[in-house]
Design a protein that fits this description.
mainly alpha; rod-shaped
Length: about 140
């Protein structure tokens, strides 16, 4: 958890610095709004990077490279990390869903078989009673 916090804090600082330098491009926003935006973007990027399956050394190298990135590059990288995260989560969710469906099907099949056996038993009893009446 300390590594995640460290990565998040470092990317927040980097994002604040980057957005502060780009204030001219964001003239319609107040300085406070820009810093809030930088904080949110940095936290998101740091969180996604911390959760990525990359080795820590690679993550640290990426953070160093991100200091030199343009806003567009940072946005693109953030999108890529988010897609990667969502895809990995979907695989786990898909496996979980698949297991759950299989379990439901097994339970359904067992209940269906039990009902079928019970129905056959009842039909046999009715048939036996009908035979006794006809005799």
């Amino acid at each position: 958890m300390k590594k995640v916090k460290k990565i998040v804090l470092k990317t927040v600082k980097q994002e604040k610095k980057r957005l502060s330098e780009d204030e001219k491009l964001l003239a319609d926003l107040s300085r406070e709004q820009i810093l809030d935006l930088a904080d949110a973007s940095g936290r998101k990027l740091g969180f996604l990077l911390a959760l990525s399956p990359l080795e820590d050394k690679i993550k640290e190298s990426i953070m160093d490279i991100l200091e030199l990135a343009t806003p567009a590059q940072l946005d693109k990288f953030s999108e890529m990390l988010e897609l990667s995260y969502l895809e990995s989560g979907n695989k786990e969710l898909e496996e979980s869903f698949k297991k759950e469906v299989e379990q439901i099907k097994t339970t359904f099949d067992e209940k269906e078989k039990a009902l079928e056996e019970e129905t056959l038993f009842i039909l046999e009893q009715i048939e036996n009673k009908t035979l006794k009446i006809n005799v």
